[in-house]
Amino acid sequence: MQRKPKETSVNLSVNLGGMAMKNPVTVASGTFGAGMEYHDFVDVAALGAVTTKGVSLNGWEGNASPRIAETASGMLNSIGLQNPGVQHLKDIELPWLAEIGATAMVNVSGHSFDEYVAVIEALEEAPVAAYEVNISCPNVDAGGMTMGCHVPSVEKVVSLCRAATKRPLIVKLTPNVTDITEIAKAAEAAGADGISLINTLLGMAVDARTRRPKLARVVGGYSGPAVKPVALRMVWQVAQAVSVPVLGMGGISTGEDAVEFMLAGATAVAVGTANFVNPTATVDVINGIIDYCESQGVKDVNELIGALQC
């Protein structure tokens, strides 16, 4: 049976950099498709927003298998941003999201600066509430270096995307950097309306019996409950460093996890790996936030944002 959030008198609506959300919960890109597969389990339209899987201009095949490995309290993935391309998203998923009344945020990926711009330009007439710009992609123009690890490339890709749209632009940061606040401030200065973090941590897994790595590409992105303390720390640092809203994610599986991120400074949160374990995780998190607010006498969820006392 399809789960919906419970009724409440608590005001759950938040504004993420110009994108109005009916509650502060979205999904982490790549863990939810565009919601179609989860609609039997949860009312996808009831989420604050649906963040689509990363989309590129033309389809990407993704990486060789094996490309997922379970680990203690988490998982590694090396999917390689496999997707059928922006035209498919425009033809199939976005019309479906609009039809059910969902708020759509499209995660934009690219292997070059021009590709990011081309994807946004292709989506400007589509029913999209905001763009999440994934700057964790390798830049083929710069020898494969990850765009989000280098201030000049962050400034360039964000400013190019900013020039291509007036819609809310949320920039998603990789945690695999020395100083996350430096990158966040560069994105803000280049025109970001919000900052999204964290993307996955770089990790690997080894099979001692075969003496081989568990992923075909050896390393992959680590996510799940184990990354939550790192994600919380980075969200807290970034929320203090920038004036734009923050979308926090990394290991969230309960309403209390979400509240912790909001107290640390997040305006909204994303549920990721938990969706694989529990297909109703998104609504469970919304209901958990409601339970917390009601038990604490919180009438407006916005009261929680940055309310950490330290």
From TrEMBL:
Transmembrane segment boundaries: none
Binding positions (FMN): S29, K53, G54, N107, N134, K172, I198, G224, G250, G251, G272, T273
Active site (UniProt): C137 (nucleophile)
Keywords associated with the record: Cytoplasm, Flavoprotein, FMN, Oxidoreductase, Pyrimidine biosynthesis
Enzyme Commission number(s): 1.3.-.-
GO molecular function: dihydroorotate dehydrogenase activity
EC class: oxidoreductase
Binding site for substrate: K53, N77, S78, I79, G80, L81, N134, N199, T200
Gene Ontology CC annotation, any one: cytoplasm
UniProt keyword annotation of Cytoplasm present: yes
A Gene Ontology biological process term: 'de novo' UMP biosynthetic process
PROSITE patterns reported for this sequence: DHODEHASE_2 (PS00912)
Cross-referenced Pfam families: DHO_dh
Sequence ranges assigned to domain Dihydroorotate dehydrogenase catalytic in this UniProt record: 12-290
Keyword Oxidoreductase: yes
CDD domains hit by this protein: DHOD_1B_like
Subcellular location as annotated: Cytoplasm
Record's catalysed reaction(s): (S)-dihydroorotate + A = orotate + AH2
Pathway: Pyrimidine metabolism; UMP biosynthesis via de novo pathway
Cofactor note: Binds 1 FMN per subunit.
Cofactor(s) the protein needs: FMN
Top-level taxonomic group: Bacteria
Family: Belongs to the dihydroorotate dehydrogenase family. Type 1 subfamily.
Role noted for this protein: Catalyzes the conversion of dihydroorotate to orotate.
Name of protein: Dihydroorotate dehydrogenase
Provenance organism: Adlercreutzia hattorii
